[in-house]
Amino acid sequence: MKRALLYLGLLLGAVIFAYPFLWMIAASLKPELEIATLTLWSESFSLESYAQVLETIPILRALLNSLIVSLSATVSVVLFGSMVGYALARLRFPGSNALYLVILFTMMIPFQIVLIPQYVLMVILGWTDTYLSLIAPTMLSAFGIILFRQFFKSIPQALIDAARIDGCSELKILFRVIWPLSRPVVITVAILTFMTSWNEVLWPIMVIRDRELMTMPQLVALFSIGGAAGTHLAFRLAAATMLALPVILAYSIFQRYFIESLATTGMKG
How many CB atoms lie within 10 A of CB 201? Predict the structure, then answer.
């Protein structure tokens, strides 16, 4: 009985959480006059709203831009974050603990505080209206470094010492010994970085003016509040659905590794 009540509560919570997203998808397929209802079913489902979005704004180009930016940021954070995390976890050098505390401290600084200095730096370097202004500030993540460090500390030191005895350099140890054992944390950092980069709106609005370089969240936001969608709620919901689908698909595919990493990565040390 207790287990049945537990499953019933979990099912109820899942329905409450998922219903707004299901309603958004269903409403994007409905005629405009039927959107006000809370039901998910309609006898007049169509893809007209999606066709209108594709005709009105260059959303496919924005999708490509978002993929370029998000994948570049993800690869960079995983690569450089694992290198820094390995150095902090397994290498002993003066100031390593102080450096770790500084990285922790940067997580306490709100993004809005560094927004203006970061924008001024992009202007001085001449990177505005380029992919560099979107990718360069996201190439390292303090959270990713900390997550890698904590996971790497759980790997037996004897394995690393054996690799050193065999003549492996530190980079070979990281990429040939540590990485194959760290698939959960690598995928977790990749998913979180991809989601963060994909959903970013404020920073692209500040540094990108060229419509051909706009990311998908930026273009959808301007489409929804800039008047291009008019009074048609179905168009906005269709654009929002197209924006959310890539992240939902990525998480659905890799959720097992994501949960495994969060379960096995402790904040010890």
Answer: 15
Cβ neighbours for 236, distance < 8 A, ≥ 6 positions apart: 223, 224, 229
* Residue type for position 27: A
Domain regions of the chain by residue span? 1-46, 49-264
CATH number of 49-264: 1.10.3720.10
Is the separation of the CB atoms in 190 and 78 below 8 Å? yes
Structural contact between residues 227 and 211, judged by C-beta atoms closer than 8 angstroms: no
- Per residue of the chain (269 residues), give pLDDT as tens: 889 999 999 999 988 888 888 888 888 888 887 887 778 888 888 888 888 888 888 888 999 999 999 999 999 999 999 999 999 998 888 888 899 999 989 888 888 888 899 999 999 999 999 999 999 999 999 999 998 998 898 888 899 999 999 888 999 999 999 998 888 889 889 888 988 999 899 999 999 998 889 999 998 888 877 666 666 788 888 888 888 888 888 778 877 776 766 666 544 44
Convert 249-265 into a string of H (helix), E (strand) and C (coil): HHHHHHHHHHHHHHHHC
Alpha carbon of 154 to those of 64, 83, 92, 256: distances in Å?
A: 38, 16, 16, 20
Handedness of CA 154, 266, 71, 121 (dihedral sign): negative
Lookup result for tokens 């404020």: 202
Contacts of 46 (CB under 8 A, 6+ apart): 29, 31
63 conformational bin, left if phi > 0, alpha if psi -120 to 50, beta if neither: alpha
- 3-state secondary structure (DSSP) of residue 248: helix
Concatenated DSSP letters of 15-69: HHHHHHHHHHHHHHHS-GGGTTS--S--TT--SHHHHHHHHHS-HHHHHHHHHHH
CA distance 151 to 144: 11
